[in-house]
């Protein structure tokens, strides 16, 4: 018999990431006593369908009996990888109340019910870790909570969805349309059959809610996040962005300006010289700006079997170490402030506008006039040669309050010389 | 009186970083109870010269009495920022033996006496944290020890010295010579009056010893690191590198290949498309490759008053949290393996060679013959037009064992048609 105590772990879910976690824990079995002073063993894996074969997971650990896990006093850590809000929420709450520690990758759940879960963990003096919920394998949650804890963080931003980054990379590098790029992403398994959560920015929005909550020490939930997807982005927008020296990315940007938070996800133009402009394919990257550290960037694989398992097993090792030192719950909820969200209209951004206009004199003057009257000043403008009586006017504005831009857009909508406001895309600027 | 316990801290050294740490702790005073459940106060700052004014540090906390700190039972954390091996080593050992926790940024000390210090920490069940020793404000030590703990890490590499990165950036972007770039770096305060530790690669070598020890779970000390500086790099090398699509950087590369470690620092050519090629000026960046996470990159400011203070205060907060939960020493030495170093001659690298040769027929055949006879195969070659009877031959080899390259270089040294082997620079290749 081993001289080490064995820590028993239950895994909820045996999908791609679950399989990766099981295999990675097996792979590291021999080293666990050196790493955490105990042996670590996944003894039960909760699945819906016991009949289905799970590659790499022996069938004897499979179970469909949650009660058997929650009432098993030997199991001290539960890893939740089922996804979705229910029954994951109930299971995690029950596990914490039963005195078990929890590791989860569930961003949907955390972005909505984070506070409830953190409070349950705190009440029960247990760990609730979720490094894998944001940025896959990239260490970002723990660095924010620990390494950068001395900072007042004013911005967290980045590329936090690999599917859309793959699609935009293909549109940029190969000139593909959105639909073609999506189909290829689906074929390669980067996008799901129903791609809504990715391409509409919902997944990125949930991750930004989690990042903002930790960075600003104030609870931000998914409903606080202003979310816009990439389905309306055209190859033309990307082409024109290039002409202005920009690259188009789906960016999450969370800011704390004088105690007012602003958290959003939308397609944005970013200078092509910015390090994020070269984060391509399914890679993710997160920038953090703090008053002491200045800029720090974290980059890596934002999804996938083993990168995500890397984050989960890192948390698992951390929980096991806490158990050995009897200090579970050591780092709990860090939302000790209560900042408010900035009202949407007050946000100040720079924009790229693409207008389809009639090919006649006075158009530029008319457009410039409307923008000027609404306090929107123009930074750059390109008028494209007309084809069949229709021209394109591309404008990059200076920073403007969103409500002023919206006023101008409404007037454009009523002007006969403007056939269509084809694109309104935010241009990323540093605060 | 506050309802919170006060944790008293002593700071050793009041230089640039020491001043930054003092100011940052003051700036965060009000938030400390929320962050760590206690108040945090630097009550003593050890300096050599009590008369010297320290901007931002009140004179009443200054002391030149180490005995007064080590015997002060109220001080539970010592932050060592004096630098150098002695007396820092003795002070840290005394502090640990006296039951105090230690935070240090001292890479020179850790790279030589890391084991002794870690053992003292372990023996006394105290924390010894050193996030600031590598990469300034960039979180890298804790991510390696915790977030990536589930990985078998096979490579850690990157730009870990800001001074040389600034110099090489200026040489690359402005075409300056090494001497001019060094002078400008000194003028701006990026380089010290005696720049040896930076430009000869010693500072980077110490950091790589620390990173390799943590990544590979095996003790690597500075003497194990193969170190080469940038003093012999010329504007011409950088120009030719560009022609081949490379950028010249001072890179630290640590690898674990089948249980044999190889740790070195030298000027290297890296493909200009590689993310590290665009890490410029005084920025640092570290790449990590693990079997689960694949590639992860950490980037930020590698030095400076507040970036370094960010790392120190992050450690300080972590120690304070451990004290509150009575779990100091929770993450100690992780060198639980005992891997050996790969013998120097067996390392296999790709090289850039710049030869000054006589302008006569048969030169290329002669050079190619010597390389071929020594098992060095040629990947690319450029012959530059001759000036005054002297030509330049630039060769990029395939991967070759160092000893075979050295044999060829020895023969070149004896060939009259070869005036000089002007440059032998490693080309970075992924394992």
Describe the structure.
2 copies of one chain form a homodimer. Chain A is of the alpha/beta class and 431 residues long. The first copy, chain A, folds into 3 domains: 6-136 and 306-324, Rossmann fold, CATH 3.40.50.720; 141-300, 2-Layer Sandwich (Dihydrodipicolinate Reductase, domain 2); 347-427, 2-Layer Sandwich (Alpha-Beta Plaits), CATH 3.30.70.260. Helices cover 35% and strands 28% of the residues of chain A. Chain A has 14 helices and 18 strands. In chain A, strands 7, 8, 9, 10, 11, 12, 13, 14, 15, 16, 17 and 18 form a 12-stranded mixed beta sheet that branches. In chain A, strands 3-2-1-4-5-6 form a 6-stranded parallel beta sheet, with helices on both faces. In chain A, a hairpin with a 2-residue loop joins strand 9 (246-257) and strand 10. In chain A, helix 4 packs parallel to helix 5, helix 5 (107-123) runs parallel beside helix 10 (202-216) and helix 7 crosses helix 8. The first copy, chain A, is elongated. Chain A starts with 5 loop residues before the first strand and ends with a strand. In chain A, 53% of the residues are buried. The mean pLDDT of chain A is 95. Chains A and B meet through helix 1, helix 6, strand 12 and helix 12 of A and helix 1, helix 6, strand 12 and helix 12 of B. Strand 12 of chain A pairs antiparallel with strand 12 (294-301) of chain B, so a sheet runs across the interface.
**Unreliable sequence segments of chain A:** none
The level of helicity of chain A is 25-40%
**Largest interface: pair, residues per side:** A-B, 59 and 59 residues
CATH superfamily of the largest domain in chain A: Dihydrodipicolinate Reductase, domain 2
Termini separation of chain A comes to: 60 Å
Q: Number of helix segments of chain A?
A: 14
Averaged pLDDT of chain A? 95
The main β sheet of chain A shows up as:
12 strands, mixed
What structural category characterises the helix and strand content of chain A?
A: alpha/beta
Q: Please tell me the CATH architecture of the largest domain in chain A by its name.
A: 2-Layer Sandwich
Oligomer state of the chains in this structure: homodimer
Task: Supply the CATH class of the largest domain in chain A.
Answer: Alpha Beta
Which range does the strand content of chain A fall in? 25-35%
CATH topology of the largest domain in chain A: the name is Dihydrodipicolinate Reductase, domain 2
Dominant shape of chain A:
elongated
- Overall number of structural domains of chain A: 3
Return Rg of chain A in Å: 24 Å
List how many beta strands of chain A DSSP finds: 18
